[in-house]
Design brief:
single chain, 3-stranded antiparallel sheet, 126 residues, 3 strands, alpha+beta, Arc Repressor Mutant, subunit A
């Protein structure tokens, strides 16, 4: 007998947001989550091992989705770009992590393994 939830499709994981789920953007959002005041473009580029072009394109997608804010200005006479999560972006990312946590728990249960205990933010810890 197949166990079902309210939607009838318990393994559809509708909350795995495609905007967030892409590998580079997932890394970018995780980096920004760890730095609530934001990060300089160069620092985010280094943390995520991306090229200028790749980072710019992914930032554009995240900005259009309302997940990040890109701030352009000057430090001295030099152009400076930084970015940070928006309030809505932080909430949406935490919602995404909750769905991802459920997926990991379901997979561990299906494999006959006990999932790791919850971490401080309600997500799995290692």
């Amino acid at each position: 007998m197949v166990k079902s939830d309210m939607s009838g499709a318990p393994f559809s994981y509708e909350g795995l947001d495609r905007v967030i789920h892409e590998k580079a953007r997932l890394g970018m959002l995780t980096s920004l989550m760890a730095h609530p005041k934001g990060l300089a473009f160069a620092d985010l580029k280094q943390l995520c091992a991306l090229t200028d072009g790749n980072l710019s394109r992914h930032l554009q997608v995240l900005q259009e989705a309302g997940l990040v804010e890109v701030i352009k200005g000057y430090e001295g006479n030099r152009p400076h770009t930084s970015c940070r999560l928006t309030r809505a972006g932080r909430r949406r990312f935490l919602d995404y992590l909750s769905v991802l946590e459920r997926l990991v728990r379901d997979a561990a249960t299906a494999a006959g393994r006990e999932p790791a205990p919850l971490g401080r933010l309600g997500v799995l810890s290692t």
